[in-house]
């Protein structure tokens, strides 16, 4: 089940932080803390890999609200979409561990905002995800320049380089729809 209570709590915390002046720039990193609960774990008593992706939603929500994107989403009736992701798992997160979720923009191109997120326990990285995200209007992804203009960040430029550019290129080589072998 989706963690609606945690989601509402993270929205409330982000709105309060934003009103207190704890705002973020697009170049900043958002950090939120959660506790790995019993509803997050699998039969091995560690955080379920699918739950990691779900909880990353909380970090992206905090980032959106504190950068001002959230206000534009509401005002313009825009939505957010994840169009691709790659995840690395390196260290187990156990029940009741205190987890820090870090979120920042890794790159932006004409259509997509590439977001990197990570989970940390006791100062050690546990998992990391690179996500291709977009802002939608009426069911279609809009150009990032329109989003940047709405946020008064028209001159902001962060083209994909390094591993982000390599991931984009590699993902372009992936067949769609996927091949089905019989």
UniProtKB/TrEMBL annotation:
Return the Gene3D superfamilies for the record: Hotdog Thioesterase
Question: Record's Pfam families?
Answer: 4HBT_2 (PF13279)
The EC class name is hydrolase
- Record keywords, A-Z: Hydrolase
**What GO MF annotations does this protein's record show?**
hydrolase activity
* Source taxon at top rank: Bacteria
List, alphabetically, the SUPFAM superfamilies matched: Thioesterase/thiol ester dehydrase-isomerase
Question: What are its E.C. numbers?
Answer: 3.1.2.-
Q: Which named protein is this?
A: Acyl-CoA thioesterase
Q: Which organism is it from?
A: Psychrobacter saeujeotis
